[in-house]
Amino acid sequence: MNAGKEKKLIQDLRIIFMGTPEFAVGSLAALVDAGCNIVGVITAPDKPAGRGMKLTESAVKKYAVEKGLHILQPEKLKNPEFIAALRALKADLQIVVAFRMLPEIVWDMPAMGTINLHGSLLPQYRGAAPIHWAVINGEKETGVTTFKLQHAIDTGDILLQKSFPIEPDDTTGEVHDKMKDIGASVLVETVRGIAEHSLKETQQSSLLNESDLKHAPKLFTENCVINWNKPIDSIHNFIRGLSPFPGALSKLDDKILKIYKSKKEYSTTKEIPGAVFSDGKTFLKIAAEDGYIHLLDLQLEGKKRMLTEDFLRGYRLANAQP
After folding, report:
1. Rounded to 5 degrees, what angle do the CA atoms 217, 100, 120 make?
2. Pairing between strand 141-148 and 291-300?
3. Domain 3-212 - what CATH class?
4. Terminus of the chain with fewer CB atoms < 10 Å: N or C?
5. Distance of CA 150 to CAs 10, 81, 93, 116, 121, Å?
6. What is the pTM of this model?
7. How far apart (Å, rounded) are the C-alpha atoms in residues 89 and 6?
8. CATH assignment of 221-314, given 1.20.120.790, 3.10.25.10, 1.10.10.10, 3.40.50.300?
9. Residue 285 to residue 320: CA distance in whole angstroms
């Protein structure tokens, strides 16, 4: 198909985009740059933030304002006024990237349905934290999936997928940044395929048995505490999987410690798991089942995040062994 005809097909689709954080901005910008007809942008209401509790716009709203796009910011997605405003936009297709759960009255509204961009190779890692859990579990590969929304979360028919490697020391933040660009590209490709009626939908149930699935539930503080009785490979993956947010937690001198970056030291010497070792100047490491985890980037309760050498210059450890 020639470029002119392809662009015309995309422009003919009336698209509503739903998203809130910076991750979603990459996708919205890619759709706009591809010539898509974005008739509405749905994003979170402005929220108080910072010391002054000043109302702050979402990243998606800031971009939409800059581009002069029509914006809706509903408090509740079932609000009759919002539903009426949404219906008045007469969308052919809705696209969801990093947004809230949608009620059926919303996702079932457009004739072509609603598609979602998910940060995993579905059906693996369904849930709220797919990037975190892929890194925590030591996966060497992840990817993005576009799929059709239906009743059960993250279970709709797959449209397109693209995989990419997770490097051994990648943090969730680094995988997120790669995924932002890759996901945006796959989303544009998906919209083109929908416009051309060239995509084949694949049922997730045909790809894996339920018993083989790995899940990606939301993370809470109690899920973020390091178990020093585990092997160092597992702990290292846990730390990078929770970096930069929400951060892997431990204790140092009875204060809460967040660890953002680590490296492994294998050892046959058996120390008490959780024991702290440091020369007070250049290294800080904690014993685990089969070696030590060196802390490279950390934040102690009441202090700023900093590199370990900077931290040691200004802090006297109470319970560290040399």
Report:
1. 45
2. unpaired
3. alpha beta
4. C
5. 24, 23, 14, 10, 17
6. 0.93
7. 23
8. 3.10.25.10
9. 9
